[in-house]
Amino acid sequence: MISIYSVSALLLAYLFGSIPTAVWLGQGLYGIDVREYGSGNAGATNTFRVLGKRAGIIVMVVDILKGFTATNLAAFIGYSVTGPQSSTQFVNYQLALGITAVMGHLFPIFAGFRGGKGIATLFGMILAVHFEAAMICVLVFLLVLVTTKFVSLSSISAGFAFPLSVVFVFHSPVKSILLYAICICVLILVTHQKNIERLLRGSESKVNLFNRKKTLSVE
Q: Are 37 and 93 within 8 A, CB to CB?
């Protein structure tokens, strides 16, 4: 059932996702458009690289909250539309809202449709839909990051950990979550295509997120 509330929630989710945290923070406080430096992405990782620890943490937290908040809009649509919060229909609305927010992050209307890779916003969505699986993703991300120092490989590994944990650890009965988890893997592979090519060539940079670069350079 489609109502004005569900359509409005989808629009609001996209607008939440479209908040270009890295761009606005960089331009407002540093006079820098992070998309012109480093990897060219308007996300937390590139903000860490270009602007340093404090700015990177702010962007990461806000981008996670974008996905988490947008996904939880399902609770405000109305019981008659979503059904009880334990129902498959409710989860499906959560997924629709979260995916819309991620699309907003990738293609933000407030920043010329040039956004980031959506990892933090995806994580916020996963937190809202399946908290336990999200914690496994965090563990995998940190383990790979500490071991390899590759943020891209850590993100990819965490993305693949989600469907594996949903199926083999938690045995989720909601099929749409598994389908969504597979879509996450595909999206991460697409948005990290250049990173994967550099990893295969052995030219991907190892990143220390807690050191600020003294000299900015366009790649």
A: no
What whole-number distance in Å separates Cα of residue 66 and Cα of residue 68? 6
Cα 124 vs. chain centroid, distance in angstroms? 7
pLDDT bin (cut points 50, 70, 90) of residue 209 is very low
Q: Are 14 and 101 in contact (CB under 8 A)?
A: yes
- Give the 3-state secondary structure of 91-106: HHHHHHHHHHHHHHHH
> Rounded to two decimals, what is the model's pTM?
0.83
- pLDDT beyond 60 at 213: no
pLDDT of the residue at 45: 85
DSSP codes, 123-166 = HHHHHHH-HHHHHHHHHHHHHHHHHH--HHHHHHHHHHHHHHII
Alpha carbon distance 154, 138 (integer Å):
9
